[in-house]
Design brief:
This protein is of the alpha+beta class and 107 residues long. It has a single domain, classed as Alpha-Beta Plaits (2-Layer Sandwich). 33% of the residues lie in helices and 27% in strands. It has a 4-stranded antiparallel beta sheet with strand order 2-3-1-4. A hairpin with a 6-residue loop joins strand 2 and strand 3. The longest helix has 16 residues. It is globular and about 40 Å long. The model has no long low-confidence stretch (mean pLDDT 91). Keywords: Monooxygenase, Oxidoreductase.
């Protein structure tokens, strides 16, 4: 799943803190297989969330959960625009050698 979130100018740090706190809960769910928060370079306030779920029904059940609804109530005032796209895995390529935990800026 890909979620693009445009955050209200000046509220980026608040959004990042909210997302990280909620991500700790999402990480504990057995049907969630990982997530990333990405910030666009050169486009202030634009973020992308990539998250992997077992299947669409488990993702939809998560969307309806009380925890997710509570998160969304906090998110909406921070959100200027956005979109969600369900993606279908086609292929996966992992690095031959682990890159470690370096950030992109360190590469």
């Amino acid at each position: 799943m890909l979620l693009r979130i445009d955050v209200v100018e000046g509220r980026e740090a608040e959004f990042e803190e909210l997302w990280r706190a909620h991500a700790k809960h999402v990480h504990t769910l057995p049907d969630n297989h990982g997530q990333q928060l990405l910030r666009s370079r050169g486009e202030r306030g634009r973020y992308v969330v990539l998250t992997d779920w077992t299947d669409e029904p488990t993702f939809r059940a998560f969307e309806r959960s009380e925890e997710q609804q509570a998160y969304l109530r906090h998110l909406w005032p921070l959100r200027a625009d956005g979109e969600m796209r369900l993606l279908e895995p086609m292929d996966e390529m992992t690095p031959a050698v682990s890159a470690g935990t370096r950030s992109l800026e360190d590469r």
